[in-house]
Amino acid sequence: MQSVATALDRLGELAASPTVSRLAAAFEAAGHEIALVGGPVRDAFLGRPVNDLDFTTDATPDEILAIVKPIAEAHWDIGRAFGTIGAKIAGETVEITTYRADAYDGASRKPEVVFGSSLEDDLTRRDFTVNALALRLPKLELVDPSGGVEDLVAQVLRTPAAPEQSFGDDPLRMLRAARFAAQLGFAVEPATEQAMTDLAAEIDRISAERVRDELTKLLLSRTPRSGIRLLVESGLAERVLPELPALSLERDEHHRHKDVYEHSLTVLDQAIDYEIERGVLDSPDLIVRLAALLHDIGKPATRRFEAGGAVSFHHHDVVGAKLARKRLRALRFDNDTIAAVSRLIELHLRFFGYTDGAWSDSAVRRYVRDAGDQLERLHILARADVTTRNRRKADQLAFAYDDLEERIAVLAEEEELAAVRPELDGADIMRLLGVAPGPVVGEAYRYLLEVRLDEGPIGPDAATERLLDWWASRDA
């Protein structure tokens, strides 16, 4: 947290930038108010980078367009119905929104958009006091009607209005509370947290797409654990991601298996650390984080108590992949994300067989083939899944995975492992066997691929001989 004087200095520097100063001058000349609002002001106090420039004004959308057109390199009005006009000014993208005084009926998913006339009233309808801060331009007057600066100092999330009213107006704000708690490292004020619990069922009014977007922002924060905990403890997760609280399995009377929920949070923490440390993926990586959080969601459905007090979760990888696919579809994630996450969950146990005995080269090839373009993410997930407190066991697993990665690297260099395919393609198969396109070509190709995986490169001549032998034995 910066001092107020330091924050105001930062805001003054921002106001002097070409983008902000041009906007301020243009609106003042047109006789309209304009203020920098929300995240940029908050982040100036927190010493965080200021990325998005959001403004609010008493001008209507038509008036905003008339003011920005002469000074903008580009402009767009896709958010015009909600009072928002976008523009690119001096190379920076900005959004300018008319003061809002929205009306909610407590039932529909969207408010009736009503424009307001007062900056203070606009600020008090926002989600949290720390986001209800504005800097009037060009006079550089800080406007804080709800005590947002004090809450920034205290590192507390609180709603400007009564939380029951705020969350009743827009239930998505409850998910935003969890997201900001994680992003900013703040605590949610007790009355606000209680309202999240009391009104959790109201989240059902919110569209799957909006829920997905908030969950995504939460997971992409550096340390999402606190926000996820808040979702589970408030009962919100039960409504939007029920597979997660279901992981809090009651332990058997012998306490012989760990809390799967806590394990999953630890795997998520470790996956994020590996994602950053390894530096291969663009970070933050949503697919890694979804797979880490959901990798064990098949355990509740597969838990069995065995003789002697043991607990088993046979095939929880396959069941978990199906459950993840279903949940991510319901949340309207894109098909590529769904396919990648479910594939990683399906494969996340595969590595642990490596420690039971040395894998053959063909087993290593299959591991790479099955992972496909998710191999790096699978490396991260498998490593992160080691949460044992037994240091000796953890070291053994880490050394084993180091060995596996080294073998993959050697085979990749020798055999172009990332592009494993038979030496003969479909055209070759049809020519050699004298067949037309059809199922038999795919069957022959799969046979040759298995040969390639078992034995490595054998050359086109040997592959031809194998193919003809297979064809002859098939007709025998």
From TrEMBL:
Query: Which keywords accompany this UniProt record?
Result: ATP-binding, Magnesium, Metal-binding, Nucleotide-binding, Nucleotidyltransferase, RNA repair, RNA-binding, Transferase, tRNA processing
Task: Give a GO molecular function annotation for the protein.
Answer: metal ion binding
The EC number(s) this enzyme carries: 2.7.7.19
Q: Which cofactor does it need?
A: Mg(2+)
The kind of enzyme this is, by top-level EC class, is transferase
List, for all copies, the residue spans of the domain called HD/PDEase.
256-399
Q: Which SMART domains match?
A: HDc
The record's Gene Ontology biological-process terms are: RNA repair; tRNA processing
Q: Which Pfam families match?
A: HD, PolyA_pol, PolyA_pol_RNAbd
Query: Under which name does UniProt file this protein?
Result: Poly(A) polymerase
**Which organism does this sequence originate in?**
Agromyces hippuratus
